[in-house]
Amino acid sequence: MSTVTPRGICFDLDGTLVDSLPDIIDSFLHGFTHHGLPAPSVAEVRALIGQPLEDMYTRFAPEHATTLCVAYREHYPLNFHRRSRPFPGVERVLGTLRERGYLLAVATTKRGDMARRFVDAMGLGGLLHHVQGTDGFPHKPAPDVIHHALKALGTGGLWMVGDTTLDLRAGRAAGLKTYAVTWGTHAQEELATATPDELQPDLERLLHHLPPLV
């Protein structure tokens, strides 16, 4: 049996580390306007955040989903930074966890290239050891993106931190403890249905569970 202590902490990105939903929703709705299609409400779009882009568009306009995905992927890379900002305290928590000896990864539904660009633009690249997008394998709630992230870190996993039930179910399936933040996509009541180990308004409680490694 290995005596190596697991050190991996995985974080969702949008709605967990970064308050990015306004830019995501604006880009999502852009395609409908651009192509003259009836657009869903902001609330309807917000409820689906965290799912694959194709699945989201299929929900509202199945016959136009491919075209709308193209419009989003043209618009979002030019506009992702307009209102998006890290949530309060995120840099401090990530920096503290690094100093304590933990290895930190993003595990996101975003494509890998866009995720890395986004992380760097938000000033978080130097605080993370790896950024893992979902490229060519199943999306959350499947645990694949977490397994890929931990493999890249070269360590076992301890916690999955997210803002949706998809994050929490993926973390549980990967054998990690789960930490839900309520400042993102899903409301506290919905997050509670996934029975996270922690359900908190911010990331501060995570530091309580992760003391310095000897």
UniProtKB/TrEMBL annotation:
It catalyses: 2-phosphoglycolate + H2O = glycolate + phosphate. Keywords: Hydrolase. The keyword Hydrolase applies. One of its GO terms (cellular component) is cytosol. GO terms for molecular function: phosphoglycolate phosphatase activity. Pathway: Organic acid metabolism; glycolate biosynthesis; glycolate from 2-phosphoglycolate: step 1/1. It holds the Pfam family HAD_2. Its EC number is 3.1.3.18. One of its GO terms (biological process) is DNA repair. Belongs to the HAD-like hydrolase superfamily. CbbY/CbbZ/Gph/YieH family. NCBIfam families: HAD-SF-IA-v1. This is phosphoglycolate phosphatase.
